[in-house]
Hints:
By secondary structure, the chain is mostly helical. The protein has eleven helices and two strands. A two-stranded antiparallel ribbon has the order 1-2. The chain is globular, with a radius of gyration of 19 Å. The C terminus is likely disordered.
Amino acid sequence: xxxxxxxxxxxxxxxxxxxxxxxxxxxxxxxxxxxxxxxxxxxxxxxxxxxxxxxxxxxxxxxxxxxxxxxxxxxxxxxxxxxxxxxxxxxxxxxxxxxxxxxxxxxxxxxxxxxxxxxxxxxxxxxxxxxxxxxxxxxxxxxxxxxxxxxxxxxxxxxxxxxxxxxxxxxxxxxxxxxxxxxxxxxxxxxxxxxxxxxxxxxxxxxxxxxxxxxxxxxxxxxxxxxxxxxxxxxxxxxxxxxxxxxxxxxxxxxxxxxxxxxxxxxxxxxxxxxxxxxxxxxxxxxxxxxx
Length: 292
């Protein structure tokens, strides 16, 4: 029963990692770049959720609050690409790495100024509610996180696989210049992808704040673990991001419980190294042929 309880908690945490890893995959699929500020965008989305939902702030209904947080962070992602990232369009990917790292520092600073550095929790309608299955207790918040993650991953998967815009995004990720000459509006597509990434980060942030406390520095640590999850699953695979998140979320509590102290903190990175050694492209590595 103790193992099952750890498993349920690990799956819920893994779903949050998976949601955040989806943001990494979205950006990578569209531009073959990595947004190292994704974790900080999640933290910003969490604070927006707290601002809209908690009774000490706007005191809006939960669904209204999470929708507003997602829309605002989606707009932030769109404007970020429109007015900042386009300035380095066509530059080496290293420029994107440096820019997003600097953006993460800026987001953490602004969040600390606005909301302070004390841990803050989100007030939800299902706080403290528990489903009991025999001796197993399943917090309702964990069930909500799991359902939300599966639904969002499925929507994004079919969006990329079955819609013209999704296919255009994949074409842009293969070769931006060739996609541009074929009539694909590459710059507009990149802006839409950044908006989607912001929406996903906001949802992940609200789910995280519903389960635990949020403070400005949490995005950095969580973002690194989510990046490890994206690498484990395969940086270009949406289902792989979810699987990688689940593996990280499950390994972490079990390693912390049954292995020596401190191992739980490094377990996700050990798992990532093992996957990179055995399968460098990730568990869901996508191999494609490019015609020249």
